[in-house]
Amino acid sequence: MRIFKKYIDPNPEIDSKNYGVQILNLGHNIHPPHKQYPDQDHPEGYYFNWEKGRYLKEYQLVYISSGKGTFEANGLPPQKIGPGTVFLLFPDVWHRFYPDKDTGWEEYWVGFHGDYAKYLLEQKCFSPENPIISVGFIPEFLDIFSNLIETIETDNQLLKKMASFHLINLLGIAYTSVLKNNRGLSHKDKTIHKMQNEIHAQWNKSIDFELLCNQYKVSYSWFRKSFKEVLETSPSQYLLMLRLRNATRIIQETNLSISQVAFECGFHSEHYFSRIFKQKMKLNPTDIRKDKNHSTE
Known about the structure:
Keywords: DNA-binding, Transcription, Transcription regulation. It comes from Arenibacter algicola. This is AraC-like DNA-binding protein. This protein is α+β, with helices and mostly antiparallel strands and about 300 residues long. Helix content is about 45%, strand content about 20%. The strands form 2 sheets. Strands 1-2-8-3-6-9 form a 6-stranded antiparallel β-sheet. Strands 5-4-7 form a 3-stranded antiparallel β-sheet, with no helix packed on it. It starts with a strand and ends with a helix.
């Protein structure tokens, strides 16, 4: 499996004064269960062990998209974190974290500094004492991370300058999530987000929505209506798009055949998978594989 895992040095051609943020490092990693964390090949200056923890000279935003683990910082007692969680790391603030040994986790991160970043992260809603943010499963969040990775990987300096704007978008979503969390969620929102988490945990399996409703003691009609009100799409469409986005990632990161990808993502027919993929994603699965092969030549 191809895993994006890369640290980059500041590019002198990208003047942070013009954008207010400058990206220092960036990455994506799937850390499997029962493996040492961090990996032994973690770059010097960023590696840490649990006993000593770590200090950084920069800001970092870390997003856990799957799995769970523990986070501790600046005297904050150990906090359990799960999928859909962002935690912020502040300069010169001690911290440590690790994934649960039984689940591992999938993590995205970006390290940065700059005047705008400093201004935003000094707002009252952000603080080293409350660095954990529940962002949830926002497709745009991962899309922006993907765009950020693509712009960093390109040799086009003009496109690389867009990286700062992608980072600002990530910080904007985190900021909005903090404000929303501070206002408090209604019982309906909390219930739907819990059910949403269940869907993410079982995304490639056959999900019985009525059984899920029984588990949370709500009617199926209430669930369908409330889900669409909160997430602006139906449960079935949400699950479908979740599977297609994961299928895209698997095609990009593995050499599995399209048929294998279809079954891996919960589709029982390669023909249906290819047809619905083309309909929703506006291109064929094989086109993604061609792009992948071309980019590695």
